[in-house]
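User: My collaborator sent over this chain with a note saying "see what the structure looks like." That's all I know about it. Can you take a look?
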Amino acid sequence: MSSTDLVPSTGAQAGQALARTDNRQFLTFRISEEEYGLDILRVQEIRSYEAPTRVANAPAFVKGVVNLRGVIVPILDLRLRLGQAAEYNGFTVVIVLNVAGRVVGIVVDSVSDVLELSAEEIKPRPEVPAAMDARFITGLGKIGERMLILLDIEAMIKSPDFGLVD
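Assistant: Without extra context I'll predict from the sequence alone. Here is the result:
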């Protein structure tokens, strides 16, 4: 294999290859009627919900801990953290994340899919009062008629409100 095998042969192909690198992938999930997205690179796995072991004196949104292949993982109900109702059913899942050097699980209503968004499809976050601190919203993804709230899950987990990271 020569070094020319690694380079696109036309300017159009090079532009397409460059444009693809600007795209980002997001795991999309639902909480109540809203659809959210988080950077797919933070996702370790998706698991069905199983009741965790409760931790005494923990905030209500900290459901407890689970043993995941020898690693103790705190389980946070993102729905409760955002002030939504939390109904546990067959669609309820835990997204296991690797953020801030920790493994953390977040409970959501359901997982939708993985979407790739270009920079043009991501709009700046709105400057309006919301239930969620605006620091945790990186922008809004527009996919056809759908709006996707893009979360900075690492900033959210690192925030003192969560109390997980020093």
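A starting point for your reply to your collaborator: Residues 11-22 form the longest helix (12 residues).
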